[in-house]
Specification:
The complex is a heterodimer of chains A (about 900) and B (about 300). With about 900 residues, chain A is an all-alpha fold. Helices cover about 75% and strands about 0% of the residues of chain A. In chain A, α7 (about 115-125) runs parallel beside α9 (about 150-165) and α30 (about 575-600) packs parallel to α32 (about 630-645). Chain A is globular and about 90 Å long. Chain A starts with a helix and ends with a helix. With about 300 residues, chain B is of the alpha+beta class. In chain B, the strands form 3 sheets. In chain B, strands 3, 4, 5, 6, 7, 8, 9 and 10 form an 8-stranded mixed sheet that branches. A 5-stranded mixed sheet of chain B has the order 1-15-14-2-11. The longest helix of chain B has 25 residues, at about 1-25. The radius of gyration of chain B is 24 Å and the shape is globular. Mean pLDDT of chain B is about 75; it is low at about 30-55 and about 295-300. Classes of the chains: A mainly alpha (about 900), B alpha+beta (about 300). Chains A and B meet through α14, α16, α17, α18 and α30 of A and α1 of B.
Chain lengths: ~900, ~300
């Protein structure tokens, strides 16, 4: 063996060393070896993996290293890895492929690392139609009678990984072969549980592209039989994986499940739900959650079809409704199996049962009531806290599905008991009671703000604010809902468009005081209590009527004071966790500031704006704004201030502008940059021509950002739209930027994206919306507000054919969004009003007319209105041109 | 935390977009533009969006009719007739300075400014509720009935009283008919006729012209003169399609009103029966799946 190979083996063995130094040495060595000659490195790794005489550790580590050269969790690095592999010489690739396929089944450790190497090469090559014989090789590995257990298992693992990672289109043509191998491994006659498990896992990953097989009754019967059999395996791993397959099959192939439902799926999943093994029970419950979800979707589809007067494409078989009487009792039993020391992140059958009940209620609506109500009545006052809690949980869970006429008396009847449970001896019960109030306020707020119960309810909630953090956090949520409910129910004053008073008015100040105290609780970091309390405070302020304004004013001052205090604490921060708590607090205060500012009257705003702006500037200057989150929240708070002050913001511009520019230059944290861009639009809208002194600098920064590759793409459409805001605000003053902006828009309008990627299609639409927004702003801004278009707009004349061409491209693109249709229609109308008759010939085109027709049918009213308006403007031009001809 | 931050960002961005749209639209003279706005997507009946559904203020609902399959004995004495052009039934509510057309199911169709009490800024604090049929070809809202006028409820007024009221209110203030002169969009109060076959026949042979356009009739409404306005179906309101009139009232109808007659139409009874049958043929979609339980031995397909 080559001495380098021997050294590499030794190094690989050290990658599992407990000695930290050895570990570091090994990883440095491996990095260097990869950097020195990557192809040679990969080749040698495949050799080490292939040869059975090497130690299992060395082989496993070699496989792992090899895999790391083939793929990565980071999508960009992954792409680089794949490109590098595809550009490697064919003989090297063949050599490595031969090694890794040959290694399948020769390893002694589980899971196989060779399987991963095979899979990641396959994932790279198969989409490019390379390695055509791979699937055949893998299949024969599994079905050949003389294959070893390890060989079958490793091969099925490889198939599973490939199915999981690859785009399902690539494998459709080979789905038969793959399925043959998988089903062969899954059969009950397969003696090895390892093989059966690997095969079941592979099936789970392959279900998406086996649609054609599910469409054929004989094949479907066979698959279903094998899966159902696997659910009966005494091996829990196999059982769970097979149940997972059933869950997924139910969503993917609902329409084919009828023959299996009564005889197989129902008894199997019912049995699974009852299991004492949590993993098995969870899959049983998941199955019915999934059925409910699916049937809710089908109900929506049926409604839509009925509205449109056509039959639905798929129909619900109402499996959930029929199963209620059998599954609800099991779910209720599972609810009583709560963990005493609950960890929020833990998922267990008791929590899953709650969610399943919620979904069943949404799906079956009122019909669930008789199955749940007796349990609730019997157990709500039980001696055993588990039963009290379970019946509360059941009550809270089903609320969402019932109609108001059923729900309202039910909740009103339960109110006194629910209030009592807020004082329960068990913290878990109190927690659930508070959560139930949160649900009630959200789902049937009119029952919560019922005058008969309001006072004791508020007392119990206020009391709950002092309870354990988890209880208090749920109470905060209830207050958020209560505030909104009370505000919605209040009578609106027709002159102001807002209510003068509401049912909470007399308690308002007291509640706000208690919430402010809650935000200050020393244990506020637990159970998300502090954010929940601030959130409740924001909702209270947002939903406050006129007669609570004094309290809003006071709260504004408290928040401002707190902000100032917090900023002084800055210097005392030492630890990392202090810093993060401190940052969170600043973000929350900025958020609360926004909600109070929105309520402040235009007369009061200027009186507090100096203090607010001083605090904000201190914050921008401090270290906190090195954290993107805080910087973003601060920029949003300034945005609200701009909105409230309007032109009055001008006096802060000189002091504030450095921070706006810092934000615009924050390419690293693109959300900050995006927020700064949005704020720029606000500033122009508010200051209009008075923003002119800052315009050169801002335009320079925006244009730089557009041209900069390191600026995240999501910011760019926003910048284009903000060009529209700017020109609309400064009018003809924009002319000096016009040439460069038009060039930029022309470039942006040429953008092309990968059309297989939905995110990129969204992005394309956003980008086009931005371009169209900018054109709209330019035309409207230059046209002016006079009764006839200002001559300034004529500078655009040479660009009109290009703009129209772009509208046509958008119109013809089948992936255009409703939002782009709206902006494009608006632009068509604007072009007509700005340029008049000559545009008729340019705009009266088939694609544009078709787009307008589509817009007129849109479900969004603005799109509709704009499309109608544009059509009318076009017609006007047409009418004028015919009159002209007639009179001539 | 990250979830709320994501939500905040989304709201911030949406807010920017809204402000921009508003700024653009302000320059577009859309304020009086009468768009045919359909139901908002957000108001669909998805069960989890229960709360976002818009409701008709004060809970008004349209009154429904029964098939007028038999002529009652007191026909001539106690019944009033209104002819109905083709169109969509709307509940028109003028309130808070805006006039809103609601579909039968309570969804908003479109809004506009009208001169009705409550329908414009001058009388914003008043409200008026009308029962109308909107005919698209003529862009006209035909006023049939009144539920409330100038904040006075007329629900408990008898039919003949309501019809007199609405007719005289529009006659006193003819400008109320105008909605948008540019688009010829207007209100027309529908005449009411005594229940006399000869008069109905004459009316059905006279071309019904609105905004210079001939409008075909879709049917006839029969109101008992003492009937109150009720929400939902009332036995004191009857309805016939035009093609049923010869059969029930034994009068002739101008052929221009018969275009909606089904090819296989034989009689009103047969028509109603087949309509009912068609309804039954639509699979009743709420029958739950029947499980045979308990079921111990499960099996799949044929082995």
């Amino acid at each position: 063996m080559h001495p380098d190979t021997l050294q590499l083996i030794q190094i690989l063995e050290k990658t599992v060393s407990p000695d930290k130094n050895e570990l570091e040495q090994a990883s440095t060595f491996l990095e260097q070896a990869a950097a020195a000659n990557i192809l040679e490195f990969i080749k040698t790794l495949s050799d080490i993996l292939r040869h059975g005489s090497n130690s299992p550790v060395a082989r496993m580590a070699a496989g792992l290293q090899l895999k790391n050269q083939l793929t990565s969790k980071d999508p960009n690095i992954k792409q680089l890895c794949q490109q590098r592999w595809l550009s490697a010489p064919e003989e090297i690739r063949n050599y490595v492929k031969k090694n890794v396929v040959g290694a399948l089944g020769t390893e002694t450790n589980r899971p196989s690392s060779a399987a991963q190497c095979v899979a990641y090469i396959a994932v790279t090559e198969l989409p490019h139609h390379q390695w055509p014989d791979l699937i055949g090789t893998l299949v024969s590995n599994v079905v050949q009678p003389n294959s070893t257990e390890m060989q079958k298992e490793a091969t099925l693992e490889a198939i599973g990984y490939i199915c999981q990672e690859i785009d399902s289109d690539v494998l459709i043509t080979q789905s038969n072969d793959i399925l043959t191998a998988i089903i062969h491994g899954m059969r009950s006659t397969e003696p090895s549980n390892h093989v059966r498990f690997a095969a079941t896992q592979a099936l789970l990953n392959s279900l998406e592209f086996t649609k054609a097989n599910f469409e054929k009754a004989t094949e479907r019967n066979f698959i279903m039989e094998v899966v159902c059999e696997a659910t009966q395996s005494p091996d829990t791993q196999i059982k769970v994986a097979a149940l997972q397959c059933l869950v997924k099959i139910m969503s993917l192939y609902y329409q084919y499940m009828e023959p299996y439902m009564g005889q197989a799926l129902f008894p199997i999943t019912l049995e699974a739900m009852k299991s004492d093994n949590d993993a098995v029970a969870l899959q049983g419950i998941e199955f019915w959650s999934n059925v409910s979800d699916e049937e809710v979707d089908l109900a929506i589809e049926a409604n839509e079809a009925a509205d449109a007067g056509r039959p639905p494409t798929r129909v619900s078989r109402h499996y959930a409704k029929g199963a209620l009487q059998f599954i609800v009792p099991i779910l209720l039993q599972k609810l009583t199996k709560q963990e005493e020391l609950d960890d929020e992140d833990d998922w267990n059958p008791s929590k899953a049962a709650g969610v399943c009940l919620m979904l069943l209620a949404t799906c079956c609506e009122n019909e669930i009531v008789p199955h749940v109500l007796p349990f609730i009545k019997e157990n709500i006052k039980s001696e055993n806290w588990r039963f009290r809690d379970a019946s509360l949980m059941a009550f809270g869970s089903i609320l969402g599905g019932l109609d108001n006429t059923t729900l309202k008396p039910l909740v009103e009847q339960a109110m006194p008991t629910l209030i009592e449970l807020m004082y329960d001896s068990s913290v878990i019960v109190r927690d659930t009671a508070a959560w139930t109030f949160g649900r009630i306020c959200e789902i049937i707020p009119e029952a919560a703000i019922n005058e008969n119960y309001l006072k004791p309810l508020l007392e119990s909630l206020i009391n709950g604010l002092k309870a354990e953090p988890r209880v208090a956090a749920n109470v905060c949520w209830a207050f958020s809902g209560l505030a909104e409910a009370a505000y919605d129910a209040a009578d609106t004053n027709e002159d102001t468009g807002a209510p003068d008073t509401y049912i909470l008015s007399q308690y308002f100040e007291y509640i706000v005081q208690r919430l402010l105290e809650t935000t200050d609780r020393p244990d506020g970091a637990q159970a998300n209590l502090r954010p929940a309390a601030y959130e409740a405070l924001m909702e209270m302020v947002k939903n406050s009527p006129k007669d609570c304004y004094v309290t809003v004013q006071k709260t504004t001052m408290v928040i401002l004071e707190r902000l100032q205090q917090v900023l002084q604490m800055e210097t005392h921060i030492t630890s990392h966790s202090d810093r993060s708590q401190f940052n969170d607090l600043q973000s929350l205060l900025c958020g609360t500031l926004q909600s109070v500012l929105r309520k402040v009257t235009p007369e009061d705003a200027p009186q507090i704006s100096d203090a607010i702006m001083t605090a904000m500037l201190t914050m921008f200057n401090s270290n906190s704004c090195k954290s993107g989150g805080v910087q973003e929240d601060a920029l949003m708070a300034v945005s609200t201030l701009v909105e409230v002050l309007g032109e009055g913001f001008l006096k802060y511009m000189d002091a504030f502008k450095p921070f706006l520019y810092i934000g615009l230059k924050n390419h690293q944290e693109y959300q900050v940059c995006g927020t700064a861009v949005g704020l720029t639009g606000d500033i122009f809208r508010a200051l209009k021509l008075k923003a002119l002194p800052y315009c050169d600098e801002i335009m320079t920064l925006l244009l730089e950002n557009l041209g900069d590759q390191s600026v995240h793409r999501s910011v760019k459409p926003q910048i284009l739209s903000v060009f529209g805001d700017i020109v609309l605000s400064i009018g003809p003053e924009f002319k000096k930027y016009l040439e460069v902006v038009l060039t930029t828009l022309a470039q942006a309008s040429q953008a092309q994206v990968d059309r297989n990627d939905f995110d990129m299609i969204d992005y394309l639409n956003e980008l086009r919306e931005g371009v169209l927004d900018a054109y709209t702003g330019i035309i409207q801004g230059l046209k002016g507000d006079g009764p006839t278009p200002s001559p300034d707009v004529m500078i655009l004349e040479p660009h009109i054919p290009f703009i129209v061409q772009f509208i046509t491209v958008v119109a013809q693109d089948t992936v255009h969004s409703d939002a782009t249709v709206a902006v494009a229609a608006g632009l068509v109308g604007d072009l007509c009003t700005a340029f008049g008759a000559p545009l008729l010939q340019l705009l009266d085109l088939e694609p544009i007319n078709e787009m307008l027709a589509q817009g007129r049918r849109s479900g969004t009213s603005r799109t509709k209105t704009l499309a109608n308006w544009a059509t009318k403007e076009l017609r006007k031009l047409k009418a004028n041109s015919t009159t002209a001809v007639a009179s001539w | 935390m990250s979830f709320t931050l994501e939500k905040k960002r989304h709201e911030f961005l949406q807010n920017q977009k809204e402000k921009r749209k508003q700024a653009f639209d302000e320059k577009r003279d859309l304020v009086h533009f009468f768009g045919e706005e359909g139901p908002e997507l957000m108001e669909c009946d998805a069960p989890n969006r229960r709360r976002s559904r818009k409701k008709v203020p004060f809970g008004y609902k349209l009154m429904g009719s029964e098939w007028f399959t038999e002529v009652p004995d007191d026909f001539q004495e106690n019944w009033i007739i209104k002819l109905c052009p083709e169109g969509i039934r709307y509940l028109v509510v003028a309130n808070k300075g805006i006039t809103t057309c609601y579909y039968r199911n309570g969804r908003i169709s479109f809004k506009f400014k009208s001169k009705l009490p409550g329908g414009n800024n001058e009388y914003a604090h008043k409200f008026t509720v009308l029962d109308c049929i909107y005919n698209k070809t003529t862009n006209t809202l035909f006023v049939y009935d009144v539920l409330a006028w100038n904040s006075v409820s007329l629900l408990h007024a008898e039919a003949h009283m309501r019809f007199f009221w609405i007719k005289s209110k529009f006659e006193e203030n003819p400008e109320m008919c105008e909605i948008n002169s540019q688009k010829n969009f207007n209100f027309v109060v529908m005449d009411y006729l005594p229940a006399e076959c000869s008069i109905v026949q004459d009316k059905l042979f006279m071309p019904f012209i609105v905004n210079d356009t001939k409008v075909p009739f879709d049917g006839i409404l029969f109101y008992h003169r003492e009937g109150h306005y009720v929400f939902g179906r009332s036995p004191l309101v009857g309805w016939l399609k035009t093609f049923m009139i010869p059969e029930i009232l034994h009068i002739d109808v101008d052929s221009s009103h018969l275009c909606s007659k089904p090819e296989d139409y034989q009689s009103i009874q047969q028509y109603l029966a087949s309509k009912k049958k068609r309804k039954e043929e639509i699979p009743d979609s709420v029958i739950p799946y029947m499980y045979t339980f308990p079921c111990k031995n499960w099996q799949v397909g044929q082995k």
